[in-house]
Amino acid sequence: METPGSQTSLHRANLERVVRAVRMAGSLTQAEIARATGLSAATVSNIVRELKETGTVEVTPTSAGGRRARSVSLSGDAGIVIGVDFGHTHLRVAVGNLAHQVLAEEAEPLDVDASAADGFDRAEQLVKRLIATTGIGQDKVVGVGLGVPGPIDVSSGTLGSTSILPGWSGINPGQELSARLGVPVYVDNDANLGALGELVWGGGRGVRDLAYIKVASGVGAGLVIDGQIYRGPGGTAGEIGHITLDESGPVCRCGNRGCLETFAAARYVLPLLQPSHGPDLTMERVVQLAREGDPGCRRVIADVGRHVGSGVANLCNLLNPSRVVLGGDLAEAGELVLAPIRESVSRYAIPSAARQLSVAPGALGGRAEVLGALALVLSEMGDSTLLDTSASAARRSGPRTTARAAAEATTGAFI
């Protein structure tokens, strides 16, 4: 039994601190671990040696500041995590290991709004197929991160708005997928996961306060305050798409009139161009045509940018973020949409807040949400379980050096 405050419990706590730092960063040098944890260099060196012997971490030569160093990452075969991203029109799944490497990833079209049961059937099949391609047993799955295109009620775990996903009324997504896969499932809305993905690996690295704006079939925002995703007590923080721009405007799916979403989301914007560009027009195609110089598409994208900028200005006045990262198909338009956003921010935001804000496209593209789902598992999983599992394996097999076979089989890092 470990007595609180004893050397044994202190050592255990230090082990968990080191594992947590490496788990969140993907890989760190020993000097970086010392800075992140506040532990001495000698303590970190001893802990890394112990974790390497149990197979929890692997250590590889690297360089830092022109000097030789050792990079520490979680073992590639210590476990795998799954990311599942439900969009309104797609399903994307990724399998990653604890060393922050993607082992397999695939996306397919799916009408998520139509049927929750069909969506979960497809997700279960795709997850199992991708795990099989990695050659790693399903018993190695530590957890699943699940993103859905709507707010999650924190207390019940169900969708907070049945008008956004009517086919999911009364469904608890986490419980449903956990029952199918037999592992813990952590759920969040897609905008929050996009923010988490960009924060950890993309355009938000090194930023403590940012907003990730996703413009697709709907409009949502993931908010990061002091380095943490802010969800609000009911889980509905960031529903920027339902800021009212015009009380006499079009009726929104939420029941109100003139929401930002009715001026910016694909479902409302595409009909403006379909009479002249055909019924099969997609937002991806609109962006492509705009970049090629199509005047109608350029005008619509500029209008969308100005409307989104009005919503961003409200965020500036309320939360004063230092960066806004634009995601979704619209981000591919580059300055065609970013310049109008900045113009509206400059016009409507408090000048001091506007001056501190940078607006940039996301670095991860359509992968932001599924990578955010992987990051969600990595942030929520327990270090204690990982240490116990590795120690048990070490006792069964004796001291060993960590195999790199799983890492060598990867398709690439998360970015």
Number of strands: 14
What share of the residues lie within helices?
Answer: 40-55%
User: What value does the average pLDDT take?
Assistant: 87
> Class by helix and strand content?
alpha/beta
* Helix and strand run: HEHHEEEEEHEHEHEEEHHHHEHHEHHHE
Over all CA atoms, what is the radius of gyration?
A: 23 Å
Q: Largest sheet, order of strands side by side?
A: 8-7-4-5-6-14
Main sheet summary: 6 strands, mixed
Distinct helical segment count? 15
How much beta, percentage-wise? 15-25%
- Shape, principal axes of CA atoms: globular
In the predicted model, the low-confidence regions spanning at least 5 consecutive residues are 395-412
What is the CA-CA span between the terminal residues? 42 Å
